[in-house]
Design brief:
Layout lengths: L4 H52 L5
């Protein structure tokens, strides 16, 4: 069955739109993953600071 040129153009546009949406979604996921990495690093840094404070704290003073 032959498709008309306009149907092919519509299909091509739909594919382009879907591809753009996938790219946008992928970028959003990458941004979220970066934020999680940053948050994890911040938690690790705070944990290190707390351990240093605890190790220097003298309960007998």
């Amino acid at each position: 069955m032959k498709k008309r040129k306009s149907e092919n153009a519509d299909d091509t546009k739909q594919i382009a739109d879907d591809t753009k949406q996938i790219e946008d979604d992928t970028k959003q996921i990458e941004d979220h993953m970066k934020q999680i990495e940053d948050d994890t690093k911040q938690i690790e840094d705070h944990t290190k600071q707390n351990k240093r404070r605890q190790s220097s704290w003298d309960p007998n003073s």
